Amino acid sequence: MKRLEHLFMHSEKEFRSYQSLVENVFYQNEHLPQQVFRKNFDYFLFQEFDWALTDDILPSIKQLSNLTKNREFLTAVLKPDPVEYYMKEFGYYNWLRTSVDISGEDYVNALWTSPESSIADAIITNSNIVVWLSHSLEWAIWGDRELEICILGLASKKAPKTFLEEGWKPLDHPSLTDWLELLLNDKKKVNDYVTQFATHYSSKGA
Predict the structure, then answer these.
(1) Alpha-carbon Rg of the chain, whole angstroms?
(2) pTM for the full model?
(3) Taking the CB of residue 109, how many other CB atoms lie within 10 A of it?
(4) pLDDT digits (tens, 9 = 90+) for 139-150
(5) In this structure, which long-range contacts are made by residues 192-196, counting pairs with CB atoms below 8 Å and at least 24 apart in sequence?
(6) Which helix (H) or strand (E) holds 10?
(7) d(Cα 184, Cα 77) in Å, to the nearest integer?
(8) What is the DSSP letter of 180?
């Protein structure tokens, strides 16, 4: 496997610049099913967490790039902490800044690239909360490993059909309830979560 350490952020200045973008978009201390998006998105779609940590996510990223004209995107781990844990332990941040034209093979290799001293700390294996976004701030994705769900927030309904074809699901799709039932195994809790998702992630005009 090709190691791609150069795609990870090493500069504190660069990290702080991108951190400000993340702070503008997300409530980093909130957890699903609460509202995690600080930015007021109009449209939301759902996917499985494990799907997002593969090259399957790249066609969606490229579609988003075509809409916003941004040619780079960020893949950033929020938990474990990029500063107090990752930078302190390994000397760089568990954040990837990559071109939307990155190959699927290189993206997957980057997700599997670990610090030489700790194989267990690759993004693919040690990432509880992961976000994806670009400088446009017209879209963002929040991924939660514990709930096994990703949420895509869009500033407008520019191309929902395209994303549905790529496997994203709307809030009312039965898959969301199915995912929660498999995970929680508690009907009352599932209903509570579905209600909270509906409160926070109903698309405007839906």
Answers:
(1) 17
(2) 0.95
(3) 17
(4) 999 999 999 999
(5) 193/33, 196/33, 196/34
(6) none
(7) 24
(8) H
Condensed to tens digits (0 to 9), the pLDDT of residues 116-140 reads 999 999 999 999 999 999 999 999 9
pLDDT in tens, 11-63: 999 999 999 999 999 999 999 999 999 988 989 999 999 999 999 999 999 99
Q: Which amino acid is residue 67, in one-letter code?
A: L
Alpha-carbon span 133 to 61, nearest angstrom: 9
Neighbours of 27 (CB within 10 A): 14
Report the C-alpha gap between 112 and 106 in whole angstroms. 10
Cα separation, 62 vs 72, whole angstroms: 10
CB-based contact 95:129 (threshold 8 Å): no
> What is the pLDDT, as a whole number, of residue 1?
57
Which pairs with CB-CB distance under 8 Å and at least 24 residues apart come from 112-121? 112/1, 113/1, 113/3, 113/4, 113/5, 113/7, 113/8, 115/89, 115/90, 117/90, 118/89, 118/90, 121/86, 121/89, 121/90, 121/94
Residue 157: the pLDDT is 67
- Phi/psi-derived region of residue 32, left when phi > 0, alpha when psi is between -120 and 50, beta in every other case: beta
